[in-house]
Inverse folding.
């Protein structure tokens, strides 16, 4: 199959609670739209898979129409359809993948089932024009905390040797960073999703008020898990602190704004410290010059700020896409679709199966 | 008009029709692989009939009721095909399609066991069935045409087989479909009907799932002469399983 020099790629994302559709030509984002079901999950304190899956189906056509309208294209103009094949929630992934297959079939264009995590890296193309030849990527969201070593040679188009390659350096052994924010928010009586609420509370707090643990940073842990993360111990330490404080209060009394602010600030500091420290170390130890940050937790000012500070101190380049491209969206999927096409990879078969646990080394299924 | 019919309420079924006439069809019973099987089946049904996708005039889709995940595959596929090809998408009750499929499976002469009305039941999982009660209007004459001459007089609903049986007790209605076959002790009914020849060995199996060709013909008929068509949205009948955590309850 021959494709125009700059194919128009439609990207579809449905791995969690965001339905995203976008159109990308080369390294240019022409239009994108995202519908979120986050409001429907608030009262459950976390994403309910069945609710998310239902919402994807409801949102799919309207979201795709908005994206096409913004891009000023019609579906007939589309040269390839890229879709998140995994990792993610099984039922949620299935909606996007089934839709993508139907579009590829109806439009007679290639189907590209791609990796959600690698798409978080690929989105940088839309901001920077090209991926760095080598980078360490920190992906942090409500579902993911991964540290990746990304090879993306500029001489693309040679299948295999020239193609993008991704290696998993480390990941969380328990909670994702965003999940830790949600759990701590709940402990502090703050609403879901926790990230923005914890950040707002933290602004008025003292980040040194409590010395919360930094998971997997002790010497013996570092030997076995140099680039892995753990946030469950941190969450437990926060819970203990809250319990102790509650015992000091009259029964039924509020935790108090100052206490909540101090816990939020100290917790955020612990998360930002571990994330940035391990990321910078990984880049230095691997001799990589560029660090990429992606995922919804990139919205956290302290995580972004401390990473920027430490990257600068270490002489590393940090790339952080605009927030709307850090959270889950179709643009990142379309961007990766455009990259794999340029690398001469794909298409995926129409029999493509979703893979909720798709390893990050598999860029296209 | 060329109509593409899809149903993923239980099996994965795809048919291509011209009017009420089936040109090609496929059906696979593999409850965990709807997402993998549907699109390739659409492609192979189009190829078998030698039809270009751009010549399709409409898409018909069974909207359940059905367990959640597989059903969504059919509905979103229908929606995306309709959008990309610029053609309308019509939803129809998968239980209606199952009723028509049961009648269509047997020759007219053998439809007697269903002449007094029957129950269609699909597997809703969790030891429940999706079901509806079908009444035949006007006796034997009505049986001649599986696409009309009958009405749904109860359902669609989701209940335990015992509750369905209790509800139709005394009416003595036979039950058909996968949901009945799974709970035969509770929901009796014929699994086979006599064939056209009258020979005792000549029998026809009643369908367990909606036949996609019959579903398509039912939609074609209802488009032409009226009858219930539904928006292409899943009929779940159940709320999502989700518990409000104790810490959040009462807020």
């Amino acid at each position: 199959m021959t494709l125009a020099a700059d194919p128009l790629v439609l990207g579809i994302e449905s791995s969690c609670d965001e339905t995203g559709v976008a159109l990308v030509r080369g390294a240019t984002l022409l239009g994108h739209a995202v519908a979120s079901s986050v409001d429907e999950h608030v009262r459950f304190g976390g994403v309910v898979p069945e609710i998310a899956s239902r919402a994807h189906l409801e949102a799919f056509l309207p979201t795709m129409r908005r994206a096409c309208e913004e891009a000023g294209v019609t579906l007939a103009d589309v040269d390839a359809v890229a879709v998140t094949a995994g990792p993610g929630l099984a039922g949620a992934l299935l909606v996007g993948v089934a839709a993508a297959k139907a579009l590829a079939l109806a439009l007679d264009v290639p189907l590209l089932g791609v990796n959600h995590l690698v798409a978080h890296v690929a989105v940088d193309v839309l901001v920077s024009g090209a991926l760095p030849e080598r980078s360490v990527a920190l992906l942090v969201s409500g579902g993911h905390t991964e540290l990746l070593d990304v090879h993306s040679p500029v001489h693309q188009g040679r299948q295999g040797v020239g193609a993008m390659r991704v290696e998993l350096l480390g990941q969380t052994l328990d909670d994702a960073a965003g999940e830790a924010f949600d759990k701590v928010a709940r402990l502090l009586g703050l609403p879901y999703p926790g990230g923005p609420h914890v950040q707002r509370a933290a602004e008025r707090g003292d980040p040194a008020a409590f010395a919360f643990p930094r998971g997997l940073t002790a010497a013996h842990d570092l030997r076995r898990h140099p680039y892995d993360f753990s946030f469950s111990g941190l969450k437990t330490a926060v819970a203990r602190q809250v319990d102790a404080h509650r015992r000091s209060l009259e029964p039924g009394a509020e935790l108090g704004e100052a206490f909540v602010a101090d816990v939020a600030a100290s917790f955020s500091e612990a998360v930002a410290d571990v994330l940035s420290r391990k990321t910078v170390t990984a880049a230095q130890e691997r001799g990589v010059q560029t660090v990429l940050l992606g995922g919804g937790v990139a919205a956290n000012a302290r995580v972004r700020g401390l990473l920027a500070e430490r990257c600068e101190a270490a002489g590393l380049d940090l790339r952080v896409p605009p927030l709307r491209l850090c959270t889950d969206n179709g643009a990142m999927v379309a961007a990766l679709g455009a990259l794999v096409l340029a690398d001469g990879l794909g298409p995926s078969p129409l029999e493509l199966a979703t893979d909720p646990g798709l390893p990050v080394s598999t860029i296209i299924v | 008009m060329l109509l593409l019919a899809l149903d993923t309420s239980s099996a994965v079924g795809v048919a291509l029709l011209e009017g009420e006439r089936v040109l090609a069809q496929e059906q696979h019973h593999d409850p965990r692989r709807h997402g993998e099987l549907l699109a390739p089946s659409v492609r192979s049904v189009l190829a078998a009939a030698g039809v270009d996708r751009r010549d399709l005039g409409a898409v018909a889709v069974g909207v359940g009721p059905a367990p959640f995940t597989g059903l969504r595959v059919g509905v979103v596929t229908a929606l995306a095909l309709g959008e990309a090809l610029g053609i309308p998408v019509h939803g129809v009750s998968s239980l209606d399609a199952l009723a028509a499929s049961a009648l269509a499976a047997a020759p007219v002469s053998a439809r007697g066991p269903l002449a007094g009305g029957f129950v269609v039941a699909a597997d809703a999982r969790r030891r429940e069935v999706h079901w509806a009660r079908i009444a035949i209007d006007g006796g034997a004459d009505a049986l001649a045409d599986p696409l009309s001459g009958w009405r749904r007089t109860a359902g669609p609903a989701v209940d335990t087989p015992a509750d369905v049986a209790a509800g139709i007790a005394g009416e003595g209605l036979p039950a058909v479909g996968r949901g009945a076959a799974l709970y035969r002790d509770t929901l009796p009914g014929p699994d086979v009907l006599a064939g056209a020849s009258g020979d005792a060995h000549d029998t026809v199996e009643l369908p367990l799932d909606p036949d996609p060709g019959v579903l398509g013909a039912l939609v074609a008929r209802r488009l032409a002469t009226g009858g219930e068509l539904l928006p292409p949205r899943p009929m779940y009948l159940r709320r999502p399983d989700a518990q409000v955590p104790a810490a959040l309850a009462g807020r």
